[in-house]
Amino acid sequence: MSSRALWAVLGVALMGAGAADLPVRPVTLRPPAPVPTPNLPHVPDVGTGYAVPLGAPPPAEIAGVAAAPAVGLALGDAIAMALMKNTSLSLAQANRRIAAFQIVAARGAYDVKLQVVPSYTHAVDAPVNPLVTGPAFGAYTQDTTGLLAQVSAQTYGGTRLSAALNAQRTTTNEVGAGFSTSYPASLQVALTQPLLRGSRSDDARRALALAVIGERSQTDATLLQASQTVAAVADAYWDLVANWRNVAIQETALQQAYAQAQSNVRLVRAGRAAAVDVAEANVQVQVYQDAVYSALENVARLQNTLKGLLLADAGDPLWRANLAPVTNPGEAPDEPPVDDAVAAAIRNRAEFAQLRDARRQAEVNVAYARDARRPQADFQLNLTSNAIAGVPNVDAANPIAAALGTQFAALNALIANANRTLPPGQQIPTLVGSARNVLQPPSVLNGSLGSAFSQLAKTQYPVIAAQLVFGLPLRNRAADGNLAAARAQLASLDVQEIALLEQFRAEASNAVQVLRETRYRLAG
């Protein structure tokens, strides 16, 4: 029978007798397309001898933990545990405390410094002349006990102040000395004020400014570490929530697939379904069973990640428990504009705060280097009050005293001879006292150390000195190099700021896009 006749018969059989009167159009059958030859890669012979193990499948449970009861965990508690456990955060806090101590140390440059120097000196000198000699033209000794008390300080404006009180007690057997025991004392006040270099910035001000900025930078580093810890805990927590929900969804799908497979078996036995439907349902059961095991693996991995963030002890019982998040996710937040998200990142992100701290440090270094390039011009003022008191020297071995004594006696003898011839109203008075009294210091200087201090208080013997000190190096390559380096550092921070702003915009755009996709999925 030809193909045309075959199609005619089929048409009659399908459409009934009434269709026999219809014209039959000839149909040309096309030959089927040939089956393509598969391209199979060469597979090496590996795993020789492997056989699928027979027996029951492993339990659908998480390894290393008890299936029940699960330990409920709130997000706030998880964050608190992670912050207390985080060693990096502890180190950041320690660095912050160290930076605070460095501020205290930098302020030490402005502390008032007190220096006390007690001293004792014993000297034996050879005789030099009849006045600088000991008794009988021998060696003379001098014993000096002294105390120097000095106070110095520096102001925040760069002014340096100092005050020194020096008091001594000196005893000597020098025949020509005015005092056998003397008490010299002095009070000196000095002031140095930079007029050019050092008037705007100096080592102390730079160190204090950098220490303050460093403490702020360490605070920002601590906040950054804390925010990263919070973000890591929150991500792991909500991922665990999603994957526990995924386990529940896959279990529900598995139960439905299993029920469908059992229904197909009953239909086949009743002759209402083909055996292939049972095979398809069994394959679907296996697919969902695989999905349950995969979901449990994800839960186990996320639980271990979260426990690693929270627990500091490998023996903590929480390692052997399932974690059940109890915090309600709430509603999805509204979608913010990207520009608002970028502005919020600039205000709140610790990375940008650290960049600002680095900029402040660079600006301090630029100001310091710029001031160091200026010439030196310092005004110095010194005020000194001197004093001396002591016990007059009455040593009879003083040759000048002996010579003057002879002259005194001769003069008095001449006066006496002259007075014999002079009337009573014209008598010449004789020299009163002795030559030794003439050589002694004035009686106002007689006394001890208290007398010397009294003279200091009255400023009886002052010395005032003022001067300007100018200094101009012919070349100042150190300051020039430091200034160029500080400016280059400041310029590099500009580039870093641009890069950080670009990073913020990219992250904000990605976050808003993820939020938009999530809201779509929740709405669907």
Automatic annotation (TrEMBL):
Molecular functions (GO terms): efflux transmembrane transporter activity; porin activity
Location relative to the cell: Cell outer membrane
Keywords: Cell outer membrane, Membrane, Signal, Transmembrane, Transmembrane beta strand
Superkingdom of the organism of origin: Bacteria
GO-annotated cellular components: cell outer membrane; efflux pump complex
Signal is among the record's keywords: yes
InterPro entries per UniProt: TolC-like
Signal peptide: 1-19
Stored PANTHER family: OUTER MEMBRANE PROTEIN TOLC (PTHR30026:SF20)
The protein's name in its UniProt record: TolC family protein
Organism of derivation: Vulcanimicrobium alpinum
Lineage of origin: Bacteria, Bacillati, Vulcanimicrobiota, Vulcanimicrobiia, Vulcanimicrobiales
